[in-house]
Amino acid sequence: MFERVNPATGEKLDAIAEMDDAAVEATLARAQSTFREWRVSSLDTRTALLGRLADAFEADKRRLAEIATREMGKTLKSSIAEVEKCAAAFRHYAEHGPSFLEGEDVAVSKGSARTRWLPLGPVLAVMPWNFPYWQVVRFMAPAIMAGNVGLLKHASITQGVAAALEEMVKKAGGPDGLFQNLAIKSDAVEKVIADKRVVAVTLTGSEGAGAKVAETAGKHLKKVVLELGGSDPFIVMPSADIDKAAEQAVTARIQNTGQSCICGKRMIVHADVYDAFAAKFFEAMKAVKAGDPMDEESDMGPLSSFDQRDTVLDQLGRMKKAGATLEFGGEKLDSPGAYMSAGVLTGVPRNADVAREEVFGPVAMLFRVTDIDDAIALANDIPYGLGSSVWTNDSGEQDRFERDIAAGMTAVNQMLASAPEAPFGGVKLSGYGRELGPWGMYEFMNMKTVMLPG
Q: Where is each Aldehyde dehydrogenase domain found (predicted)?
């Protein structure tokens, strides 16, 4: 059983039954059967479905958002924004998908050749709880457009969202079996990946989960895309707009109660502007209001679970033990929910193991650096390489950061955010492969070469 608990109150919502072997088998059989039909469906059929999905998400955004907020605690306003972003992704692929699937003529020495993009089959998505709709839709929308079918293994705490996603595809007129929720736990994933009907896997989650999925997929020679953790640098140089940088740094750190892979976690600030930045950053972080996620006045809700809050508190304890100073915040709040206050750590030893971990909560690490070389060295001194944000109005510095920061994405003078149009993914232990744009669609397609006589 999946027990759902509201992290804002500690109240048990309900329990959802886990699929047995027979139900999993029936789900896989439907996926395979539906793929035979969907792979040859017209582009007009696919784009029309995506358009209806966009309309359905917009029309039902309040109900969908409330499910996510009750299950994992993000503020209702951010849940609504997430659902709206999903609708935009459906529209993006409906509008641009047909052009993404156009083949190309290829010059060859004899005769002629061209390429065709063809679907592969049922793709399994193993998804996390932090953006429970968006993480799924950025796989679902291109998969549907490509002619694939989707299987979702969602996080245990967001099974209500998982059921709602399957329901929405059916309501929009998607054929039975096009997108199905696999209500299984992690220990059942290996068997599904091994099943010959599943052709590929995409996972967003922890480094450990990614390694296990990649090992199983590799054993069975199946394609896998991994979007794993990140401890993104947020670098501020002397030429930056300090007021804007400090404001955006707060948003980056408390968005989704600090539970976002790509928002700045390590604030790396040049010595010349460190004091000015710190003063503004501290003041704004101290003003962050944690409270009822259904309340419009709350800046952030609880963490997703009591276990997640305890994990963050343990990390803070180890940082302090290593010599860091907790300037303020980072404490449990007197509440029945999984709340903690926003906080800032300074003086974190660069060589401490815990300084290289991802802190998935509303606490920032603040570092002082001497120059751009020092900033880049510190930014790269972690095992991850997902995103980064750099603040500078010096074109030479901007070029250095774009070239030398080891990350899949760099935002300049803004907080990093994903967009349906742009490739999303990382390097190093942050995973491999890309989502979104045409690149995300191509990850799970066969680029077939067709050789023709002259």
A: 2-450
pLDDT at 399: 98
Strand arrangement, sheet containing 179-181? 179-181, 149-153, 122-126, 200-204, 223-227, 431-432
Instruction: State the pLDDT at residue 454.
Output: 76
Cα–Cα distance measured from residue 257 to residue 264, given in angstroms and rounded to the nearest whole number: 13
> If we measure between CA atoms, which residue out of 377, 379, 369, 375 comes closest to residue 273?
369
Q: Which residues of the chain register pLDDT less than 50?
A: none
**Contact present, 131 and 155 (Cβ < 8 Å):** no
Q: What is the pLDDT of residue 71?
A: 97
CATH superfamily of this structure's domain 2-228+430-452: Aldehyde Dehydrogenase; Chain A, domain 1 (3.40.605.10)
Domain spanning 233-419: CATH superfamily: Aldehyde Dehydrogenase; Chain A, domain 2 (3.40.309.10)
Token pair 């010959």 in the structure block, residue:
196
**Integer angstrom CA distances of residue 31 from 35, 83, 97, 148:** 6, 25, 22, 9
Q: Which two tokens stand for residue 270?
A: 């040049």
Enzyme catalytic residues = 227, 261
Residues 313, 60: Cα–Cα separation, whole Å: 36
CB atoms within 10 A of CB 304: 27
What is the pLDDT, as a whole number, of residue 252?
97
Q: How far apart are CA 451 and CA 454, in angstroms?
A: 10
Q: Which sequence spans correspond to the domains of the chain?
A: 2-228+430-452, 233-419
CA distances from 166 to 21, 204, 406 (A): 20, 19, 37
Q: What is the pLDDT of residues 364-374, one digit of tens each?
A: 999 999 999 99
Hey, do 2-228+430-452 and 233-419 end up sharing a CATH topology, with the first three levels equal?
A: no
Residue the block writes with tokens 């003003």 = 287
Residue-level pLDDT at 406: 98
Selection from 187, 156, 181 nearest residue 5 by Cα: 156
Whole-number Å distance between alpha carbons of 24 and 19: 6
